[in-house]
Write a structure and sequence with these properties.
The chain is α+β, with helices and mostly antiparallel strands. Helices cover 15% and strands 47% of the residues. It has a domain of 85 residues. The protein is built from 2 helices and 7 strands, in the order βββββββαα.
């Protein structure tokens, strides 16, 4: 028996911008009112629990499916999809530090004041067990 190939489902898409906002009425027309628009090249990846959008700037947005009421797709004039959510998506700014910058920034947070350690040792009462 010969196995038939299955068509691959595309799970990652190129994006140019992500407007976030609310639906509202202008007179009797339902319109989308953006509160912020994130622009720049990036990708949207369909995952098992969320749709994750990543930009080249390190910004990331996660749209959890558990907070999603609906997804609407559109082909013309430009392919797009609209997510209607019950809660705001999660926004992240990823660190863009290289390994040396990361080491320096973490080292700078360390306390190397030996006087502080001596004072701590002098004020602690010794523990003795008498048996």
């Amino acid at each position: 028996m010969q196995e038939t190939p299955t068509s691959a489902v595309k799970k990652e898409f190129r994006i140019s911008k992500v407007p976030c906002g609310v639906w509202s009425y202008v007179r009797s027309d339902l319109v989308f009112v953006p509160s912020c628009v994130l622009e720049g090249g990036g990708s949207a990846k369909v995952g098992s629990r969320s749709l994750t959008v990543r930009f080249g700037t390190g910004k990331r947005i996660e749209f959890l499916y558990s907070n999603t009421w609906g997804i609407t797709t559109k082909n013309a004039p430009y392919p797009s999809f609209t997510l209607t959510l019950s809660r705001a998506p999660r926004f992240f700014q990823e660190e863009s530090l290289n390994q040396m910058d990361l080491l320096v920034s973490r080292t700078a947070k360390l306390s190397v004041d030996s006087r502080k350690d001596r004072r701590l040792q002098q004020t602690e009462a010794p523990t003795h067990i008498i048996g």
